[in-house]
Amino acid sequence: MMIEANNAKAVLDSRSRFEKSLVICLTRWQEFRCHIALRCKVVFQYHLSNRGYFGKIRFDHANQTLQLKVCLLVQTDDQMVTQGRDKDPRSLSGGEKSFSTICLLLSLWDAIGCPLRCLDEFDVFMDAVNRCISMKMMIDTANASDKKQYILITPRDMGNIHVGQTVRVHQMNDPERGQGILAFT
Q1: 152-173 residue pLDDT tens
Q2: Cβ–Cβ contacts within 10 Å for residue 137, how many?
Q3: Taking the model in full, what pTM does it have?
Q4: Helix (H, G, I), strand (E, B), or coil: what is residue 63?
């Protein structure tokens, strides 16, 4: 009977230590998640400022949602003022929405250590100014990233974009009407 009591006590002690360890682990994970969210918010605002925009990201971890607000800044005589209230991304123009999406992706990529990052036709709704600024941001981010590979696929011409030494552009021939298979050379 004494041996069974000692075994039961050892099991309860082990369970107690495990529960304490689990609480510590969950607390650290929640702190880590908050730090990632904060970093993402700061990087998002930084990237938006390249175009003169201001924005916020609201992470709701409990409901597993993400809410974006973007404001356009307008220069008046000596001061910058926001143009209207915070806008829901759905009310932005195509170029503004695409640019904001690129800023969000760059901020999420910065917070997450994924070695391969791909975008396909990210610039189809962008005007020339937003496209140029977005491409520069992505190329600068790629150049500053260590051991990460970026694959950016676009149907648009890359002739006016300065890519630098670490970036390679592979241009494919335009497809012909009725062509079933692309000719890779």
Answers
A1: 888 877 777 777 777 777 777 7
A2: 18
A3: 0.74
A4: coil
